[in-house]
Amino acid sequence: MPSAYRPERQPDFASFPDTTPIVIDNGASTFRIGWAGEEEPRVAFRNIVQRPRHRSSGETVTVVGDNDPALMKYFDCTRSVIRSPFDDDVVYQFEYMEYILDYAFDRLGATSEVGHPILMTECECNPSFSRARMSELLFETYGVPSIAFGIDDAFSYKYNQKLGNCGEDGLAISCEHGTCHVVPFLKGQPVLEACCRTNIGGFHITDFLRQLLSLKYPYHSASITWEKAEELKKEHCYVALDYMSELQIFKLKEKKKQILLKTTTEGRMRAKQRRAEEEALREKQEEERRFYFGVIFEMDPTFVNKAEAVQQTPEPPKARILTAEDYRISIGIERFRCPEILFQPGMIGIDQAGIDEMVSISLRRLMENESVKERICQSILVTGGCSLIPGMIPRLESGIRQFRPYLAPLRLVRAADPLLDAWRGAAAFAASSRFGRQTFSLADYREHGENLFHRYNIVYSL
Amino acid sequence: MEPEVVKAEAVLPLTLPFKKVQMADKYPKGQSRGRQWKHLRNLLQGADASSLPPDRPNYLNIQSPPSIYPPKRYCDITGFEAPYVDPRTKLRYADPEVFKQIRMLPDDYVQKYLALRNAAVVLR
After folding, report:
1. ipTM score of the complex?
2. What keywords were assigned to this record (chain A) (predicted)?
């Protein structure tokens, strides 16, 4: 997807009956919206809001998602920051959320009202204040008849279960934008008592890369933006199978390069010295010649040294010519150093377990016997954007093996499409005829208030 | 608005026909909005911790605990394993070459490198 992708307005909003649910995958990085029962979301955009000032009229305007940089020149973005409604994986800024929903429903083609039930994804154990404010917003501002909330990883797992990638009992490892989750599943239902979360994700990898590069190249620090770092990450980063040995290999390579550099610099030094010696020799000859001229001049005062009479104009000092070196940045160790923070969050000062260890924590929290755990370990699904980083699956496998008994069976699968599966699973879920029982309406919310959410958990196996 | 901005629909309209309450009614123009939102940490402290039974999973108690392994130390500049710490700047470094480099670093860079692993000195 190009960074300046703008979704088109969908023309067929009115052709759907009022009972067809709208499915929203409200991810911290990307917002996806579409219709229940369809295979692809209709509209997807980056979940961000900017409020720049329009240059010619001075108005503050709202821009949602990424935009064509050619259009952004009409806006003064110096004082507006890119904002997200999310803190980690919880929606907490409902003003921004409202702009995003405005834009999403507008792109989906809503004209007079949004009269459809809504299924929206959320994180594991979303705090009830966030759910409450979200439902208030949907009920009161958009007039939605009913709402259901579900966990994105669970939908992704269910979707892959349908595809045959994982079984009824299993485990989902999800590395998302701001957090990583590990959730065990028993009989197709997530066991939230045993799930765990580390507050580290793809955002942190990109940010770490950005900061490292801008410290390494202070000259370029203004042009290494978060978006550029994100592109670099997608293109070059990989996960080392064994971080320590990868470091050793890299260090050896670096040493060789240094030795090469040293020999070449020494060669250059020697050449310079030789040149200096030649220069000195020439100077000496010149001196001798001058001396002879002096002798001639004494004999013949009219003699003019033509060669010296032509005075050379002093050349202006040349500005240093910028070479390719000045525009080039090299990423070496950063390629695997940045994704490593998922496994060692301590590297960026987060005192929590890495994703391989999270699996063992989750299994420990699961109050089941060893045979169940063994079955779970044979159906591990890896999903979320970071699972696309090359080398992720082998590394996770070797990491998890360390916590399991010797020769215990282990099987890891990457989700069919780690980015879209959550939406697809949710769309399939909402298309079921029994979806209606999982939703709650405005009347329910008025009756129970926030208490409604303390015990709110939908049933994923319909 | 410039014609290409209008054509691309880059800007969100102020009123949308499908909304019951428009943005301008919720947040009237010219009224200072101040900071009405709180950080997630404050919101969590206020809401969930007290009202929920501790044996049920909630947003706070599903967090993973610290790792059982001792944290490895890596050089702040090069990323290699770092056996040494510079007592003056508190930066970790891998070999004498890097040590020379960190002694040349200006102070704000030292702080930026420390901030990478959340170890910078924050003056309040």
Report:
1. 0.89
2. Nucleus
Q: Are residues A201 and A340 in the same domain?
A: yes
Of A64, A125, A349, the CB nearest to B57: A125
How many whole angstroms separate alpha carbon B38 and alpha carbon B26?
18
| Angle made by CA atoms B114, A197, A234, in degrees to the nearest 5 | 65
Give the residues across from A121 on adjacent strands.
Answer: A150
Cα Rg of chain B (Å, integer): 25
Find residue A183's DSSP bridge partners: A172
Tens digit of pLDDT for each residue in A264-283?
A: 888 888 888 999 999 999 98
What residue of B is the nearest CA neighbor of A341?
Answer: B117
Per-residue model confidence as pLDDT tens for chain B (124 residues): 788 888 888 888 888 889 888 888 888 776 656 556 677 777 777 665 556 667 788 888 889 999 998 989 999 999 999 999 999 989 999 989 899 999 999 998 999 999 998 888 777 6
> Domain check: are A367 and A446 in the same one?
no
**Angstrom distance (rounded) from CA A98 to CA A83:** 13
To the nearest 10 degrees (0 to 180), the angle between helices A128-136 and A94-108 is 50
Nearest to B63 among A61, A64, A352 (CB): A352
**Pairwise CA distance, residues A274 & A430, whole Å:** 81
Which residues in B lie closer than 8 A to residue A208 (C-beta atoms)? 116
Residues whose CB falls within 8 Å of the CB of residue B72, separated by 6 or more in sequence, listed in order: A344, A346, B81
Residue A42 lies in a domain: yes
